[in-house]
What does this fold into?
Amino acid sequence: MSWTVNKPTLWILGAILLHLIANIYTTYLLLKTDQYDKTQKIIQFFILWLIPIVGVFFVSHFLDKNRSDDSGIYHGSPHQLHDGDFGASDGGGGSD
It folds into this structure.
């Protein structure tokens, strides 16, 4: 018995494999991040795994956006703030 695969089938299998690898990697990044609380992560897992192709780009976009944003805006959960987080001076601006 000979098993042959034509070129279009290889392209489809390759695309599915690439999609699975991207989903698994994005799931790993989502598990590792502390930017979101449990509810937000669950919602993003549903988006990632239940919306084919678009889900991985949607979730990874927000992971990258929050990780690389240097605007000075706090993107974490308000539950992660500590008393010492307010009033710290970075030497720039403020009232004279």
